[in-house]
Amino acid sequence: MSDTKAEIISKIYNDLSGFGSIKQTFEEARKKDKTITLNDVKAWKEKNIVRKTNLKGYNSYIAAEPREEYQVDPFYVNLGELKFKYGMLAVDIFTKQVEVVPMMLKDNDNILAAFFELF
Predict the structure, then answer these.
(1) DSSP-derived secondary structure letter, 89
(2) Can you spell out the DSSP letters for 15-78?
(3) Beta bridge partners of 73
(4) What is the reported pTM?
(5) Residue 71 and residue 88: Cα distance in Å, rounded?
(6) How many CB atoms lie within 10 A of CB 15?
(7) What residues contact 48, with CB distance under 8 A and at least 6 apart?
(8) Digitized pLDDT (tens) for each residue of the chain, 119 residues in all
(9) What Rg value do the Cα atoms of the chain yield, rounded?
(10) Residue 16: helix, strand or coil by DSSP?
(11) What's the rounded Cα separation, in Å, for the pair 29 and 113?
């Protein structure tokens, strides 16, 4: 998309007080330049306007400080003759710091003990 098309779309979108829909912005832009397509308007909006809703499958939560939110998962380790066959992994989603607690068994008591050790 050329700069002139982007400039026209930007001016029209801003003239609509920043509340113009893609369709409305497209219709107004076509009055100024017949070569502007709906895909031009969609591409401009995706590049220049912050999305108000998240794409499907993307997490919207962002932790404000360390130790506020963790991602915790148990896992199985198959590395031969080890004493510990399981582990509990915790990641602080703010700092990305990782902690692992080894577990002999994956039962309620061991999982609870691993949680207490992690936190």
Answers:
(1) E
(2) HTTT---HHHHHHHHHHH-TT--HHHHHHHHHHHS--SSPPTT------SSTTS-EEEEEEE--
(3) 89
(4) 0.48
(5) 11
(6) 11
(7) 10
(8) 566 888 888 888 888 766 778 888 888 888 988 999 999 989 988 888 877 776 777 766 778 899 889 999 999 988 777 788 899 999 999 999 999 999 988 899 999 999 999 88
(9) 26
(10) coil
(11) 63
Q: How many CB atoms lie within 10 A of CB 57?
A: 5
- Rounded Cα gap, residues 77 and 7, in angstroms: 57
Three-state DSSP state, 114? helix
**Cα separation, 81 vs 75, whole angstroms:** 17
Q: Are the CB atoms for 72 and 89 separated by under 8 Å?
A: yes
Sheet of 98-103, strands arranged across: 70-76, 86-92, 98-103
- Domains of the chain: which residue ranges? 3-48, 70-118
Let me know if 98 is exposed, middle or buried by CB neighbors in 10 A (0-12, 13-18, 19+).
exposed
pLDDT tens, residue by residue, 40-50: 989 988 888 87
Q: Which two tokens stand for residue 88?
A: 């509990």
**Residue 20, both tokens:** 């113009």
